[in-house]
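Lab meeting notes turned into a lecture example. A postdoc, R.K., suggested we walk through two folding results consecutively so the class can see how the record format repeats. The first protein's sequence and structure tokens come next.
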Amino acid sequence: MREHSSPIPVPSRPSVRRARSASTQRPSPAELDAITGNRDRVVDLIRLTSLIVVIAGHSLMLTVSVHDGRVTLGNTLSDVPILQPMTWLLQILPLFFFAGAAASTYGWRPDSSPGQWLLCRAQRLFRPVAWYLATVLTAYAVCTSIGASAVADVVAHLGVQLLWFLGAYVLVLAAVPALQRLSSRRAVLVATAVAWTVTAGVDVTRLAVGASGLGYVNFLSVWIIPAMLGVAYAKRLFTRFEAAVLGLVALIIDILLVSLGPYEMSLVTVPGQHLSNMSPPSLLLAGHTVVLCAFAIVLRTPLARVVAHTRVWWWVVLGNRGAMTLYLWHLPVLGAIIGVAHLCGFTRDPQSALFWPTVLVTTMLLLAAMVPVTGVLSVLENRRLPWWDEPVARATTTCRDVAVLVLLAVVAVSTLLVARGGIVEEWGWLASGICAAAGARAVAAVSRSTTLDRSHHVH
């Protein structure tokens, strides 16, 4: 089994520090290539690529119209429906779950307590979120105090909308210790089929009786599928041929679901959809996760060749060290770029003659701007917080461990609900999530002698 850890540690040996540039304080590509050993670099490449494509997709989809002083946000896929099939190529966020589970499998140790293990991951995941959420709450308070209610409403909702991903990801990570029992191709296929069937049952019920709240079950039943396939990837349970067959079968089923079933083409939410494929996730998205992960397994060798290049690996390492920062802050940066462009006469109104040139240029500017933004703000992501980041013991009593696990599950569910309704409407869940996180940290066992190896943190 290949070594894997995340985030990727930057060397601290005196000889390496002296070799670094005084301006960057980062290892050179050659140094980084030497110290990362036989790490599975494909996992880190997949994780970073999935985030970059998602960020670009958010920019390409967003339309902004200003009429009579009112700002209206829209979706390119709604205005130009012919582009919706493109989401089958651009909706690759499931690969982040795939990569996260693979990295967790490489770093899992059987003597770890699941709750303690999950808290160790949550420490790093929520560290940048704490800074981001503090900024959102401050921005909301300032906008409210100066009477900018329209801006305050956007901040209250759009500012936390993307946190749904974190809630779903923590729920899936909570299941990773149990997923380590998957030790054969058959076991993975059976488990995947069970999750797919549960998702189908939920969708049928939603359509039959309109039980929309039941859709939240799919946040676990769908997103656990790429995690299971990530475990299979790390354990090498599928050959390339077997993975290719699995991917093709899943793709055919997805095509049939759209052609003959109730599902719409777009794999991201579009206004007016009678059944969203994304929020909550649907059976179509469940199949799509299988397609993506299966072909990721197929492409393992060529991807390994790509990331074997020293300069490529250097960028992958730096990107992964700020992965959560990259994800959290791209919408505020996009908003700033769109605002400046609007002042310069370049709007994202779909009726504008310069709409597509504006969208493409601002998307490229966003990707370029996120390099320095992530470089600056990722310092907060990698700086440990007092108390919250105290070392977590590898094992503890069953009662204490279950308590930690339950509290972190509450944090995950609270995050999903806050992302859905905003910080004002769902302030109770926001408070509950913060209290549950603090409770998990307080209940968890702390030990200076037998601690979880922090080199195995997972974004």
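The second example is placed directly after the first for contrast:
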Amino acid sequence: MNNRSIALLKWIVFPLSLFPFVLVAWHFWLAASGTQPDALGADPVNTLTHITGDWTMWFLLISLAITPVRRLSPRLAWLIRFRRMLGLFAFFYGTLHLGTYLFLFSGYDVNGAWEGVKSGHLSVLWTNFVAVWPTIREDAMKRKFVQVGLLCWFILLLLALTSPQWVLRRMGGKPWQRLHRWVYVAGALAVIHYWWLVKKGVLTPWRDTAVLIALLLGRLAWMLWKRSKTAAPRAVQTV
């Protein structure tokens, strides 16, 4: 696939990746404005938490799947050009997921903050956050799934900050690659976060867990095959 086709395809993939956010934002506005109070269901915060969490996981798994899929054929090498975009969307939806927890689940006075912003008092944003910080800290200390989720987000943050090409050139290829292999750790933490979040008996996380395990096994098989391929010439030379 040539550069022009890839550029055109990116113009398609980007809005499609952003569409879930637009849809959620629209329903959030309908619910918040009172136009359609049940636009996000009976429990809007829970709905937003699950939607943003699901899309974080899906984009993370899709970005992880690009490398093994492109290895199936040289004709699929162009897929690597989309990995960074999809990985950044995983971070984007992960940040929305975290924001839902910090500003909705925690009891943050969203309406008060919005009124303060409209009246020009931007300091109310920070004041309201300070007010709920003890609740957030206490909740994070006693809930392991929150701790794991925060750790996953910080890894995604680090990977997002180091994703630009100029950072790659500054760090060098191999150090940059070693750092970005932490995306597999982020994927594992995301799955653990999901399992610890749901109630006992809920098997929904198995779907994402199975995909992640398949990707990890595929990567392991590739590494072993590559190692055996490089070791074979050495064995011939020693005979």
